[in-house]
Structure formats: structure tokens, C-alpha cells
Amino acid sequence: MVDTVFQNLIEKLTTKIEELKEIKHLMRELEDDLPMEMEDLVASFKDLKKQITDAKEKHVKDLLADHIDYADYRKKVQELKEEAANLKLQLFTEAANMSREHGDLDQTVVINGIASRVQTQKEVQVYLNGKVIK
User: Fold this and answer.
1) Domain range list for the chain
2) What pLDDT score does 96 carry?
3) Alpha-carbon distance values, 81 to 25, 88, 95, 124 (Å)
4) What residue ranges of the chain have pLDDT lower than 50?
5) How many CB atoms are located within 10 Å of the residue 74 CB?
6) What is the number of other CB atoms lying within 10 angstroms of the CB of residue 72?
7) Cα–Cα distance for residue pair 17/128, rounded to 1 Å
8) How far apart are CA 129 and CA 63, in angstroms?
């Protein structure tokens, strides 16, 4: 009984997903057929973006060459990112361990007058062929 319900729902879902893909494909074909004016604008825009990227890269190279502090700042940013990533991993591990021991957590901690809330919860997700159904 349950298998037939799942089978019917999956069959209907698969049909709708295929219809959706086909309609999106048709829409993309129409959208990709651009007028000449728009193609020229898109080309100009891409060229301008490349110029901006090149100018920014040159500016950063100049900063690295001319300002010793800038290189130190970049190094410090990288170090702080790594430390923050390690602390996030520690927080995640601690919350997961506490959650296993005591169930779902919902705790508020005040640091420097700012409240931070830590929560854990079990999520139920349905997968179809290894993909989460949203």
C-alpha cells in the first residue's frame, strides 16, 4: 500500500520535473536569441568588466610593491580566517557532542552585551535518487 503511494507520487513528480525542464529549455532558447543591439551591449559590458578586473589587479600589485603594511594586513587576514575556521569547527563539535548527550540545544550566551543564540535540531529531509527534495 505504502509502496504504491510512493510510486504514484514519484511518478507524478518525475513527470512534472520533466515538463518543467522542457519549458525552461524552451524559455532559454527564446532568451538566448538576442537582438544585435543587445549583443553589442553584452560584448561592451564584458570588455568593461575585464578592464575593471585588470585595473584592480594592477592596483593590488602596486599596493603589494609600494606598501609593506598591505602585505602584512593580507597575511594577518589569512591567519585570522584560519583561526576563525578552527573556532567554528570547535563550536560545531562541542554543540554536536552536547546535543547527543542532552538532546536539541537552544542556548543564549551574552558576550560584550550582544546575545548569541546556539541551537541544534534534527532535520528530516527526503531524498530522491540522492538529491534532496525541497
Assistant:
1) 1-33, 36-132
2) 80
3) 41, 10, 21, 32
4) none
5) 13
6) 10
7) 12
8) 50
